[in-house]
Design brief:
Length: 319
Amino acid sequence: MKKFFAIVSVLCLIFALCACGAQGGEKGESLVFTTGGDTGTYYAYGSVLAQFVSSKSDVNVTAVAGNGSQANVEDLKSGAVQLGFCQSDVMSYAYNGTNIFEESGAVKDFSVAAALYMEQVQIVTMNKDIKTVADLKGKTVSIGAPGSGVYFNAIDVLGAYDLTVDDIKPVYQSFGDSAESLKDGKIDAAFIVSGAPTNAITDLSTTGQVYLVGIDDEHIDALIEKSPYYTKNTVAAELYGMPEDVQTVAVGAVVLVRNDVSEDAVYKFVSSIFENSAEIQHGKAEELNIEFASSITDVPYHPGAAKYFAEKGFEPTTK
């Protein structure tokens, strides 16, 4: 008889645990959020947002390091992750099957959760004699991984000055490796596309004077005319201890989400961020703006995100 009751007790315990697990599953979804390298803004900000949303809702978000915009889109496509940071230009390439996605074809497995902040094209150097993009001719310059978003940003900016990769000595490095190479004098400059201040540049500035190469109005206007996803932007001098503010261009940092994530989970992800933005412990949270967040027009928004923005008086693109 004791053996019988023991078996019944075990079975009841198993049933209870299963029931709790089922209830836990009903309470919310678990989402993996791919960000960027651990010296960039994607990783730092994405980790903060993941923890914040998890604490403010029943959606459990886990941030993981990523390999940049293109890789993040590919991870979304494969189903390895449910959320991912992406540059707005790379997002458009993927959705329309152009540039780095021309050979593999358009990716339609994702939609937009929100645009969060601007990512500046930061051309970093420790050589005070490199003052314009034209001065990069003949220099050793890091332009990001081949086929990456940074690579195409570099190509675009160089092109505005009638330069190509053949006019420089290109190397293909991550943000952290670029900073190390600059510090060691192995390269002359590096393209780093990330929200300023960027950890890799901030850390570099503690070892010596850093400069950002500016882009003048004439070349910015030509660049935007050809590639309208860029906008004029200014990096403040105090961010890296520079002699003066520097004018450059920027693209948007967008959170993408797989289409098969539930409307409820995406609604909670977006609303948790924007309803409690003052509590988010990261400098980029100061740039959160609902109008900007809902402003993407060339890729549709997820229904959960669209629902939240509609409640706030904005009607983002959904088709």
